[in-house]
Amino acid sequence: MTLETILLAVGPGDTERSDELANAVIEVAEPTGASVVLAHVFTESEYDEVITRLDFDTDRDEIGSDEVAARHSTIRQLQTALEEHDIEYSIQGAVGEHGPTIVDLASESAADRVVVGGRRRSPTGKAVFGSTAQEVLLSSPCPVTFVRSDQG
């Protein structure tokens, strides 16, 4: 299977694992020449909080989710890593529930692979992924790479 587009979907919990996510995407994109869609998915409340924290000068309705995503630290860290490896990328922001929105973005971008992060679970939690990861793994239109963080 030829990879042309990889969707790397991040959310508010992914700041601490941006290096692991970048490495996972680079490992797949670099040898195949695939382009990467860096997508930051916000719930409505997360989006409002980020707009306030990033101190945008304009009204919330005039700010595009792509612009908010591009200014987010996690996306900027991932951009730097992809640029160091000359990997083509685009940035997309989306507002909605994390799991279904990631699945929608995968379909809309015609992704050949989705990369998402997650955290190490407790022994009883290992039987079930987090709800976002589970939704993406079960509903994605393409294969999913799950990048687990060792942090709780």
Task: Write out key terms for the chains shown.
152 residues; alpha/beta; Rossmann fold; 5-stranded parallel beta sheet; 42% helix; globular; Rossmann-like_a/b/a_fold; Universal_stress_UspA; Universal stress protein; UspA
Mean pLDDT value: 87
Terminal residue distance: 34 Å
Annotation, overall tally of beta strands = 5
Number of domains: 1
* Class derived from helix and strand content: alpha/beta
Strand content: 15-25%
Quick one: CATH superfamily? HUPs
Number of helices: 6
CATH-defined fold name? Rossmann fold
CATH class: Alpha Beta
Helix content: 40-55%
Low-confidence stretches: none
Order of helices and strands: EHEHHHEHEHE
Strand order of the largest sheet: 3-2-1-4-5
Outline type: globular
Radius of gyration, taken over Cα atoms and rounded to an integer in Å: 15 Å
Family: Belongs to the universal stress protein A family.
Protein name: Universal stress protein
Organism: Natrarchaeobius halalkaliphilus
Pfam families: Usp
